[in-house]
Specification:
By secondary structure, the chain is an alpha/beta fold. The chain contains 12 helices and 12 strands. The strands form 2 sheets. A 10-stranded mixed sheet has the order 2-1-3-12-11-4-5-10-8-9, with helices on both faces. A two-stranded antiparallel ribbon has the order 6-7. Bound molecules: 3-isopropylmalic acid and manganese (II) ion (MN).
Length: about 350
């Protein structure tokens, strides 16, 4: 059956990186694409960063692929980014997975540390200061936001983190600010409770300020990092230094229905329209989509390898190269066809032996 994917190109470099990512998805599988507007482009068209039609298209698709959202044109009266917050709420997306691995790219971190780093940030999307009410007052003398966290929200996302850890290196680092915030003390208590269900997983706690230092000082020490909405947003951009650039990280937002995939990066208005945006994060988001929503981990691995092989010698300007988005994408396609050919099961024994000689 053909999969249905809602495609929200969004703002800034969103449409450019999605063009590239969709071409990769299309070369792996036949998909039915349903386009819809979100963020700034939706505000321009309808006045609403999440029009009802978009929400319905997303709800009735198998997965959602989003480019980027926001930009300086849409801060008042409603920030474009609210389109994404509303979409997460509407779809009940509560766990944001942000894998960060070393790629074939130079990183500013000490050689050796980044090479062995492989972390998965699991970020709560349901609670925290981004969503709490009351809020308001940006135009007056006193502005207010409310940081609310429920035990149920923490429990749900903590289970996701611990389950992921059991498939990885059995280690969870939970990040909070429990020396100051009540929300963090609740967080820590509930995470400790959930940990009892996973005796094989080692749990440690960190305050966010210490964590932001250690993540760069010793990134190879961490496996799954479990944290709240705001801290996860900040730490995931910081963790991009492990991979070498913010443009190369993907993310998946999971709930009980269709999941949403997007690169971690934002709209990068200074790069928009120039054809030089790095589509790696968007392409790796397609790999996550193939694995988590379309049950094709085999294709996901091949896409990841194709991207990593490509990064060795074809690079966009943000990672020190001169390639355009299109040139990079074409190179990924070429590597993808090689890898897919090498992975195709042969029809008889003789061919199996022959093709395995490629050693891929
Ligand atoms: C991200 C973005 C979003 C977030 C914004 C656009 C709402 O920064 O995906 O990291 O803060 O979650
Ligand atoms: Mn962010």
């Amino acid at each position: 059956m053909t999969a249905t994917v809602a495609v929200l190109r969004g703002d800034g470099i969103g449409p450019e990186v999605l063009e590239s990512a969709l071409s990769i998805l299309g070369s792996c599988l036949q998909v039915r694409v349903r386009e819809a507007k979100v963020g700034g482009e939706a505000i321009d068209a309808t006045g609403d960063p999440l029009p009802e039609e978009t929400a319905e298209i997303c709800q009735s698709s198998q997965a959602i692929l989003l480019g980027a959202i926001g930009g300086p044109r849409w801060v008042q009266p409603i920030p474009a980014a609210h389109g994404l917050l509303k979409l997460r709420q509407r779809l009940g997306l509560y766990a944001n997975l942000r894998p960060v691995r070393h790629l074939n790219l130079p990183t500013p971190l000490r050689e050796g540390l980044a090479r062995h780093a492989d972390v998965l940030i699991v970020r709560d999307l349901a609670g925290g200061v981004y969503l709490g009410e009351p809020r308001g007052g940006a135009d007056g003398d006193v502005a207010t936001n409310t940081w609310t966290q429920t035990a149920d929200q923490v429990r749900r996302v903590a289970h996701v983190a611990f389950r992921q850890a059991t498939r990885r290196r059995n280690r969870v680092t939970s990040v909070d600010k429990a020396n100051l915030l009540e929300t963090s003390r609740l967080w820590r208590r509930v995470v400790d409770e959930v940990a009892r269900d996973y005796p094989a997983v080692f749990l440690e706690h960190r305050h966010v300020d210490a964590m932001s230092f250690e993540l760069i000082q010793a990134p190879h020490r961490f496996d799954v990092i479990l944290t709240d909405n705001l801290f996860g947003d900040i730490l995931s951009d910081e963790a991009a230094l492990i991979a070498g650039a913010i443009g190369v990280l993907p993310s998946a937002s999971l709930g009980d229905g269709p999941a949403l995939y997007k690169p971690v990066h934002g709209p990068a208005p200074d790069l928009a329209g120039r054809g030089i945006a790095n589509p790696t994060g968007a392409i790796l988001a397609v790999a996550m989509l193939l694995e988590h929503s379309l049950n094709r981990p085999d294709l996901a691995r091949i896409v990841e390898s194709a991207v990593n092989v490509t990064l060795r010698d074809v690079r966009t300007p943000d990672v020190g190269g001169k390639a355009t988005t299109r040139e990079f994408t074409e190179a990924v396609h070429r590597n993808l066809s090689w890898l897919r050919w090498a992975h195709t099961p042969a029809e008889d024994e003789t061919e199996t032996t022959a093709s395995s000689e490629w050693g891929v």
